[in-house]
Amino acid sequence: MAAEDIKKGLAGVVVDYTAVSKVNPDTNSLLYRGYPVQELAARCSFEEVAYLLWNGELPTAEELSAFSARERAGRALDPVVKQVIDTLPTTAHPMDVCRTAASVIGARHELAEDSSPEANMAKAVDLFAAMPAVVAYDQRRRRGQELVEPRDDLGYSENFLWMAFGEDHVPEVVDAFNVSMILYAEHSFNASTFTARVVTSTLADLHSAVTAAIGALKGPLHGGANEAVMHTFDEIGIRSEESLDQAAARAKAWMEDALAQKKKVMGFGHRVYKHGDSRVPTMKAALDKMIAHYGRPELLGLYNGLEQAMDEAKAIKPNLDYPAGPTYHLMGFDTHTFTPLFVASRITGWTAHIMEQAASNSLIRPLSEYNGPEERHVP
Ligand SMILES: CC(=O)SCCNC(=O)CCNC(=O)[C@H](O)C(C)(C)COP(=O)(O)OP(=O)(O)OC[C@H]1O[C@@H](n2cnc3c(N)ncnc32)[C@H](O)[C@@H]1OP(=O)(O)O
Ligand SMILES: O=C([O-])CC(=O)C(=O)O
User: Fold this and answer.
1) Same domain, residue pair 142 and 269
2) Residue 271 is part of a domain; what is its CATH number?
3) CB–CB of 152/75 below 8 Å?
4) Is there a domain that residue 302 lies in?
5) What is the 3-class SS of 105-123, one letter each residue?
6) Which residues partner with 24 through β-bridges?
7) Which of 120, 271, 327, 331 is the most exposed place for a label (fewest CB within 10 A)?
8) Which helix (H) or strand (E) holds 32?
9) CA distance 30 to 160
10) Per residue in 63-97, pLDDT tens?
């Protein structure tokens, strides 16, 4: 087989149909079930978008009310899951905690071995409702704080922030968080979603697929990049007394040095988008609002400096993780909680794909070209 016939990383390979979302790098657009993601982010709650991803249509007022009631009823942290989390060292990465929690939630689900469409939908909604408490509690225990019980008078995003910080948030912050959840929800056959589909294709259960997807999301070439972006900011140094221009100049110098050393800088580049990520302008607008709200122009300086230097040197554009990282930082999340926030959102997209894969299944099993030793025999 010729080397060019090998599609390393499956780059450019179309492996199946999907009706969940359409990523179009030529028009720089992203549609969830036909709706532009920017419109959904501007006009919908994350609950409505979750419903859309699973059901193919936005909910009516009645459907939304029933769905929200179901989600609110599933928010409390299962005491057994809490016990398991408490046994994990605080040195464990929060993504490991998330992965473990998803697995425990699956093993304890009353429909664990049922992979019917109805059971999969029930499991998806349950996991969507349960994950914020896992992420919020894990951050709190690392800070020596107690669990905060959910509030059923709040929407998903407001309650998530409530459980994480134990305080009310102003609408601007809740909106920015809601936007981030919507933008992170779904992105066709990315590495973690494809992982979930591979696991589903063996007829394994939904929680096995989600647990594997969480593992795939952890890496810095994928979801782990939102955490890595903040490490870059920290390495450059966040100086609150600095002006926007001073911060930008230091960030530019850092980037020039990193690129001279041929480093990959997380938060830039994308396998599919080559002229910019469709979600970045919406997330950047949310970041701008948070920078204004918290009065932190020096962060914008770092952001602009890195972006400009990368553009001048390599014309590589930021991806969604680039504005999302500093947004979560400003909201007060610990840096290694950023990717678990991505998990809480992407559960919707993963499970929509799991259901789609299960409904039209074929075992996913590509071929490889052998390049090891010729046949030989044990002496
Ligand atoms: C939500 C998400 O998951 S979005 C993705 C998050 N991931 C990141 O931010 C990690 C950083 N980015 C990257 O590693 C890459 O851009 C990927 C993995 C996302 C996509 O990569 P691919 O399409 O496979 O492109 P590939 O890695 O081959 O890069 C092509 C060229 O651009 C360069 N390049 C791509 N991204 C970057 C980057 N972030 N920093 C520096 N150089 C880069 C590569 O070094 C390579 O250069 P070369 O041809 O001179 O060797
Ligand atoms: O599509 C990808 O390869 C990665 C990505 O942006 C996502 O999963 O949101």
Assistant:
1) no
2) 1.10.230.10
3) yes
4) yes
5) HHHCCCCCCCCCHHHHHHH
6) 29
7) 271
8) strand 29-32
9) 26
10) 999 999 999 999 999 999 999 999 999 999 999 99
